Amino acid sequence: GGMAVAQQAAKRQRLNHAAQLEDERTSRTRALAAKAREALTLLQLLASNNLGRLAARIDQGAQRMLKSMNLRDLVYDADGETVAAKLISVLITQQLDNAAASAGGTAAALGGAVSGVEEVAVMLQKNCPSYFKEDDRAFYQASAKLKAAEAAPNASTRAALVSDALATLSRVPLACNLEYLVSQLAYLRCYEGIVDVPLRAAAAADPIGAALRPEAGAAHEEAKQRRRAAYQHIFSTLRMLVSGEGNPGAAAGSGPDAQKGLTSQERASFKSALLKAAFKSGDVFFLECLYDAMIAMGDATTLLSSDPPHLERFLAEHSGLATATGYGSSVVYLPNNGAPVGPLSRRQVQLAELLAKLHIGKRRFQEAASVYAALASRRSGPGESSVGLEERVSALQAAVLQAKSVGNSGLVDKLEADARLMSYQAQVAQRLEARRVSLGPESEEEASELGRQASDLATGLRDVSELYNDYAQPHKMWDVCLQLIDFAGSAVDAALVRQLWDHALLAAADHPESAIMGDSTSQLPSALSPPLGRGAGAGLTVRMSAVAALVERLGSQFFPSEASFPATHVAFRMEQVAAGLWPTAHAAATTAADGYKGDAMARAILGACHNSLPAALRVYELLLARRAPGVPEAELAQVRLKVSLLRSLAHLCRAAQAEVVSALVAPGLPAADGLALATGMGPGRAAGPQAALTLAHREAGNLADACERYALEARRLGDAEAEELAGVFDAVKAAAR
Known about the structure:
This protein has 737 residues and is an all-alpha fold. The chain has helices at residues 2-48, 51-56, 60-67, 71-76, 78-102, 107-127, 134-149, 155-169, 178-187, 191-205, 218-243, 264-279, 284-296, 300-306, 311-318, 346-361, 365-377, 389-406, 409-438, 444-457, 464-472, 478-488, 494-510, 538-558, 567-579, 584-587, 600-608, 613-624, 633-636, 639-665, 689-716, 720-736; strands at 322-323, 332-333. Strand 1 and strand 2 (332-333) form a beta hairpin. Helix 19 (409-438) packs antiparallel against helix 22.
């Protein structure tokens, strides 16, 4: 008996379960049939309003879905509901536009449009509730009110209609057709609404705030995409205002001014009001997207001048110069915090430069200098994240400029030193690359090594000793060696410095066509222009020009440092080259008649001494008196060399004569440095015309005394050209007295 009871209970359970399944199937079938009926009703309504025209007004993505859609898709598929919603939106928008256009946008016609939309909405909600919900009805009612506001008889009525519509829209943001709605609000110049409704839609599309929580993983990225889709409607309006292309609101406006373009003043006012509303937002992610969009539009100037909230944070984080601690919390700004940043993309570099400009605008020069210093020291990467040495130098120079504004002398000194050393490093890298390019295919291994070294130098600042020992000296870049020694500033053996100068001068003389000349802008007084004596051969003239250009370029960088620029030794070597006495290999084949008779040596020494005649004359006085450090007296005793020295002195004395004459004619305007010849008189700065005249007479006397000594020295040589030079000194002496 117990077995039979159990079997009957199991049978009843099976029958009950089967009945439940049958009820569920019947319910689903009825629901499907009801939705199919709704779909057919909707299609009938759409067809009666020209479905083809409606379909042409939806976006291209929806059009593609519609082309391949059948009744089953419309009833059963999520894409079907999406397409239906877009077609309904176009239908009601068309109802509003047609009603407004039929009566020229009058208040009565627009009031009728509101009634017409309500009728369609009631019919859709009654017959197609699956496709048209209560939120959809609320949106279209609000849209109709905005349409009515376009023809409101006065401002107060318009404001009331807009306010009522916005209150409704704020409750149903996800039901809004943002593209059309933003256009309506733009036509009505409702700036707050243009910002507020899309932001509400963005928040509703991300109810748990996943876009603001990076730890949410994949949901975080999806939420950001949904929010961006809503933000874009604000940015599209702003883009039209910034570019001047298009008229915000023209697509939705029905009044007589709908298609009328905005003046530049109106655009500026519209943009200012729109940004003012946008900057009030508490949505940090929106603000960051807004800042990014404005920079992409080329409107960074407006952004910096507005200084909106969270801008510094955005620039610091997205440039890679700061570490984020999460949205809504504080950020520790860490520019150049000891370890190099990067590699950075071009966009990140642009944001960093904007960050520096933001600091400058706020007179925070220390922070701006830190940003530029971080850019200069950043790590290099492949492609667009690579950093050239010239770019690093430029960033360091910008950092120096900002540090000077702070008045921090220690920081200025450090940054200037880094900028100077980086410029030398760039010079070395450029020459290595130039040598690599010049090599033929037979030197593939050497070319590869040069390329590797140039690439290594581009990765960041090197130590001065590393640059000297590993790059400049092995590659015989003698001028760079001298620059690095001058930069180091430490005690260096004077004999080594003289040897480096010798190497540099020989390289310029032997290869004048490839000597690094630089830009020489210093000019010698016109009294030095006419050369004395006969001209030399073209080859020697070219070599002397190269040597002189090198001396002027390097000497002017080092003067008055004797440690880096031993002027007497350099002048001695130049005069030896001019006389054909150096290098020694050339001396035997050169006669006095072959020597160089121009003024390149005097010009070079004067330019190297920053156009100071006293300093240049002092160099030659020491050589003539055989009291030059490191210069053998025996070599200074050679007649050919003495003649060359006296020739350069004659050029300098003629220049000094011109300054004396100028001082005597205009005693109130003495020469910039005063003559202060090697007779011991200090530089003259007269307080008044009479004192200046007295000083000028004294300097003229000193010049005459010096020329008398030079003439005597020339006559002792017993050389024809020396005798000619003695006559020049006599003439200068006579003019000075």
